[in-house]
Amino acid sequence: MLEIKDKKACCGCQACYEACPAKCISMVADEEGFLYPKVNRADCVDCHLCEKVCPQLNQASKSSDEPLACLAAISNDTETRLRSSSGGVFSLLAKAILNDGGVVFGARFDDSFAVFHSCAETEEELTPFRGSKYSQSDLRGAYSQVNRFLKENRPVLFTGTPCQIAGLRGYLRGKEADNLYLVSIVCHGVPSPRVWKDYLESITAGARPTEVNMRNKENGWNQYRMTIRREGQDLLNVQATDTPFMRAFLSNLTLRPSCYSCQFRGNHGSDLTLGDYWGIENVHPELSDNKGTSLILVYTEKGRHLLEGLDLKMVESRYEDALKGNPSILYPSQEPANRADFWKAYQKRGVKALKSFTSIGFMNKLRNVIGGYFGKLGIK
Ligand SMILES: Cc1cc2nc3c(=O)[nH]c(=O)nc-3n(C[C@H](O)[C@H](O)[C@H](O)COP(=O)(O)OP(=O)(O)OC[C@H]3O[C@@H](n4cnc5c(N)ncnc54)[C@H](O)[C@@H]3O)c2cc1C
Predict the structure, then answer these.
(1) pTM of the full predicted structure?
(2) In whole angstroms, how far apart are CA 284 and each of 49, 87, 306?
């Protein structure tokens, strides 16, 4: 029976919860707002399926395996690219699957702006998946829905963090159908849903916003802004790295404990991995226009096939060049020495603690300790 003794050993993928035939596992939020499985012992039938599907217990990435290809790309659909976080490749892949009669899974906001996984069967339903949401997405039964569509022989594109891809592969237990396409994002780590909820409330004073964009490109991709709006009016419109929410995320204070020892880096079983091609201006200036450029890592022939016929500009790139601007491809984010202090303060003071731990003065002190890393993250 699954027992989480060390929080670092659970990435929250929910494979155990979905696989349990006795339905005796529930996902319960801890004091940081991250979900963990809780087994109801009385109903457990001792089948051990929860352990068998767990990617943390059974899978690890082959991070030393280089991708088959490393590409830089931008979508030719500029409008969609501007509404995407990077070069808009996700939307192109998703549309191709829909045109083939398929289904696309991705992360979106619910009515209260909590992030969860859902599926789209039309282009309209695809829109909410666009753009990065910096809060761990709640799977809410997505793996069993994937399985249902696969059994109907429909093409399925599942997108998510590397651990969510590993979770789905664990859930399917090696029965990966030809019609399943796995596309992960390069992942710095997933921030706490509780911090996101509290931060949003502090901006909106409890009234529901109509639009939230954590990677708004109105001032360009390099200087992305965070915008929160109600009926066209700005409640927040600032460079994202100036918000305490993004600063806490980028300085790793609010990441899930398992992210600091993430096992799903590099080749973690996806067909493709998508990210931002930071540093593109130095290596492929012809694809650098500050509207967003995607990095595509190709891990399988199936992934290569998926890229055929897409309406984009794409060039072959060098893996070493991509790694320079994007350490998250291979290395987990480091746990900050003051993480426990931060959470102690957060339990008492909430968003006020978020602000004091990410104030300019505090960040400057930290900069002296960890130096150049901040520059790479775009924090001035
Ligand atoms: C938490 C997080 C950390 C990231 N860290 C990095 C990084 O360190 N380096 C880097 O290069 N790129 C990182 N990215 C990925 C990058 O921001 C883009 O999502 C990616 O390049 C795809 O961009 P796009 O323009 O093709 O499409 P977009 O339309 O921008 O991407 C949407 C895709 O992102 C997925 N997505 C959005 N939010 C979440 C979420 N909370 N959980 C799971 N999936 C989500 C959607 O399902 C969809 O597949 C991160 C994204 C997230 C959500």
Answers:
(1) 0.95
(2) 47, 14, 23
